[in-house]
Amino acid sequence: MKTKKIGLLLLTLLLILVAGCGSKATENGAGKTSGETSSAVGENEPEKLKDVKVVLDWTPNTNHTGLYVAKEKGYYAEEGLNVEIMQPGAGGSDAMVASGKVPFGVSIQENVTQGRTQGVPLVSIAAVIQHNTSGFAAPVDRNIKKPKDFEGKTYGGWGSPVEQAVISSIMENDKADANKVKFVNMGEADYFTAVKRDIDFAWIFYAWTGIEAELRNEPLDMMYVKDFSDKLDYYTPVIVTNEKQIQEDPELVKAFMRATSKGYEYAIKNPEDAANILLKAVPELDKDLVIASQKWLSPKYQDDAARWGEQKEQVWKGYSDWMYEHKLLDKPLDVDKAFTNDFLP
Predict the structure, then answer these.
(1) How far apart are CA 89 and CA 97, in angstroms?
(2) Angstrom distance (rounded) from CA 308 to CA 151
(3) What are the pLDDT digits (tens) for 263-282?
(4) At CB < 8 A and 24+ separation, what contacts does 269-276 make?
(5) Looking at domain 8-22+47-131+235-338, which CATH architecture does it have?
């Protein structure tokens, strides 16, 4: 499971796309679509479902299971929605949602934060996972047990300033020198290929790559970023929409989130069944990995929150303050406009 593939590097493209499409009506917004019922339809004919798209942040995985469950179990149909789950185009999910090309998508708090400080109208409407399950992973034979052990090692990443900022920050706290770390771009190589080729450690989601390491019997040492600072316990991933969608058709947002919430609640209670639903929709995925990943991740969707999807102001403020302190933002984030819990059931 790759993370932050869009991130800071594609914000320029995102801004251009938003500017170019901002004046256009959204494809699935408040206006009629081909799926809506015409006034000429007879009273005895069943009401047609409204076509709605949701775009993923990356290839399908267990971060997305609740969406597939909501579709398969008929929760979207119960809300009058015919939902298409799609993979992102070249511009990424953030650009597609911010521009109004699709009404809903999967993103991460970092992208929403960075985007909003530059005028991108994304709004987070749910936290998929309550706590950050990402961190730095290394094969145990590299003997990387703490940030100071990064010295003299090679880190494989995607070239984002956030990576260097996080590594420098946690190494500084460990009285270590980040200048002694060699940074290389992994490109499209996966973690297992890269650590055998030319890197010592990388930033991964444990729910996917970590579980895969277990199944491969390739043990790794894992350092979760949230363990080094409360400010790094941010939401990744999140479900997003755009400001125009909220303003023009809040009822659609509510309906989508009612069904989506039911999907994730089902996955929390029935991890193996939910995994099989994901596998049915995406049969090319590795069955053992999906089932093991789902069992590990399902309890973490809601964790200690009062309900699935709940977002806290201190989490948004803490991480945006951290980004601003480390010069990753040009200005502080207006937190109240970046997220909302109003559409959670």
Answers:
(1) 11
(2) 39
(3) 999 999 999 999 999 999 99
(4) 271/295, 271/297, 271/298, 274/65, 274/66, 274/69, 274/298, 275/62, 275/65
(5) 3-Layer(aba) Sandwich (3.40)
